Each structure stands twice: as C-alpha cells, then as structure tokens.
Amino acid sequence: MQSPGTALAVASQISESLGTPIALAGRTFLITAGIGVVMGHNRYLKVEEVLRDADIAMYHAKARGPSQTAVFTSSMYERMLRRTVLEDELRAALNQHLLSVHYQPIVDVRTGKLPVWRRWRAGFIPSSERSRRTRLFQ
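The structure corresponding to this sequence follows.
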C-alpha cells in the first residue's frame, strides 16, 4: 500500500469485520484487534524488521484500547529501546543487590499520623511495574 490512508482504511475494515458478535455455545463473544501498520517498505532490508515495527505499533494500538490502529513511527521504536534498557538495568541492579528501599514517612502535621502509603514514582518504577518486578520490592 502506498499511503497511510489506504492502510488505515483496510485496518478499519478488518476491525469492523471482527466487531460482529459471535454466538457460541449459548454465549456471545466480541473479538477485537489491535492493528499495527508499517509504511515505508523501501527502507527495510529484512522482513524481520517490518514485523518488529508492526509489532511495536500493534502494542501501541492495544495500549489505546480495544479495536485501535497505530501507524509505526521511529519514536515508538526509540521508546521501546529506552524501556528495554531501563528494564535490563533494573534486572541487573536487582541481581547485583544494588537496590535498597528507604522509607521516608510523610506525617500529617495536623494529626501526627501517617497517611495511607503513597507509591514512589521514579523513572524505573513504572517500567518495573509493567514487567511485574515490583513483587521484589514488596
């Protein structure tokens, strides 16, 4: 396909086709699909690169919700690389026992009590939450 518009139209047709409910064994099922679109086939040397980028776009589409489509951009690849590096660094830090947990209680000055626990948000923690590594901190 030569244009993103054509590719998006085909993706929309696929989503609409899948959107028809299916009755099976007395139950109704709705199928949705996250669709990743890759344009610029001339810049790819290997089919694996096209599939990799389509996969990255598909996960972006799925993150938006059911029956979404995303067109791959180089920034998606760059974000995936950054996330992968952060996850690798976190894994290495955990394996080498380089992380420690420090609690800094926040006290309500009016009551002198500790409020409900609030999660600390830093660069690597959201990445660890997605990769289910926070259980190591609990």
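The first helix runs from residue 4 to 18.
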